[in-house]
C-alpha cells in the first residue's frame, strides 16, 4: 500500500524576494507536477498502517545548493517499509503558490508553511541534478518508537495540522524534525543539540551564504537585525540541516542494554563532486572599486569647481530607499529577525525626499546641519562593520566623500530660507 501524498512544492529555506522568482522557474514546476502526480496515485489513510519489523526510520540530510533558497541545505525524515510498500519522506519546508495574497504574505513572513510527503527517490534525483550531496542516518529506534514517529508525522500531515508559522531561525524544516523525534521517543532520548561551536545566527548563515554567494550574504546581512547576533543555543543551532545531522550523531537512546548511539548506520546516497566558485565581482570588490571611482570623480569636481548634484541625487536616493526597505522589514513583517537593524544609521531613510531639495542654485537653510547630523550617524554606523564582513567600510568611505563634497559645494550656494 502506497501512502504518498503531496500537493505542495518541497523547498528548504526560502528567505528573500529573490527566492520567489527562482521558485517560479522550471525546477519548481517540475517538482510541483511530480508531487501532484504522486498525490493522485494513491490517497490512503496512513494512520491505520501498522509498520512491520522491516520498517526503517532515517534522517536524510541534503547539502547546500547554489540558489539562495537551497544554500543552507535541507532535512527530511524518511519512513520506509518494504512489506507495506511505504516510502514516505516528510518535509516541513513546503508552501503553495495558490495561497491568497501570496507575495504579500511571503514578504511579510506570514506565509503558512506545511509538512509535505513524497517518495524519496525522485527527490534524490532532483537534488543530484543540482549537484547536492545526500546522506542517510538510520535511527536506532524500536518498532514501537518507529510506529510512534510515523503516527506523529502522519498526524501532523492531517489537513487541520499540517500548516505552521515558518520562522527561518527558530521553526523551520530542520528544527521540526527534532520535535518529532522527541515526541516519539520521549525520555528514552539524550539529545543536547549541536554543541561543537558557539556562534550567532548571523555567523552561522555567513558560513554558508558567504561561501556560496557573497551577494546573497550581503543582502541577508542587510535585511536581518540585532536578534540575529544573539548566540544560538545548542538547540537553536540545529536550524541548519548540517548541525541537525551532527546533533543526531551525538544523541543517544536508551535500550535494555543501556544508552547507545541514536544513529545505528549511515550511508552516502549521493556524493557531490566539489564545485569551485568563479564569482569575482564580490560586494567587497564592487564597493571598493566604486569608492575609488567616487573619490576620483569628487576630486575632479572639486578641482574644476563643477557643482553638480546629479550623482548625489542618485546615490542618496538609493541609500534612502534602502533605509525605507529596512524600516518596512522592521515594522511591517513578522520574520522575527529583521527588527533593530542598525544599518538604518547609514541607510538613513529621510534622504528620500531630502536630497531632492537641493540644486546648484538653492538649498534649505538647515541642510548643512542635516549633513552634520548624518556624518554623526555614519560614525555610529562603524559599529556594524563586523556584521557585513567589513564590506561596510568602502560604503561608508564613499558616503563620507560625498557628504564632504555636498558640504563644501552647498556653502557656496545661498539659502532659500526654508
Account of the protein in words:
Strand 9 (252-255) and strand 10 form a beta hairpin. It is built from 14 helices and 11 strands. With 418 residues, it is an alpha+beta fold. Helix content is 43%, strand content 15%. It has 2 domains: 9-195 and 234-270, endopeptidase fold (from Nostoc punctiforme) (Alpha-Beta Complex), CATH 3.90.1720; 283-410, no CATH class. The chain starts with 8 loop residues before the first strand and ends in an 8-residue tail after the last helix. The chain is elongated, with a radius of gyration of 26 Å. The strands form 2 sheets. Strands 1, 2, 3, 4, 5, 6, 7 and 11 form an 8-stranded antiparallel sheet that branches. A 3-stranded antiparallel sheet has the order 8-9-10.
Summarize the entry for a quick read:
The chain has 418 residues and is of the alpha+beta class. The chain contains 14 helices and 11 strands.
CA radius of gyration is 26 Å
Under the CATH scheme, the architecture of the largest domain is Alpha-Beta Complex
Number of helix segments? 14
Mean pLDDT: 84
Distance between the termini: 78 Å
Shape: elongated
Instruction: State the major sheet.
Output: 8 strands, antiparallel
Task: Note the run of SSEs as H and E.
Answer: EHHEEEHEHEHEHEHHHEEEHHHHH
Protein structure class? alpha+beta
| DSSP E strands, number | 11
Low-confidence stretches: 1-47
What is the assembly state of the chains in this entry?
A: single chain
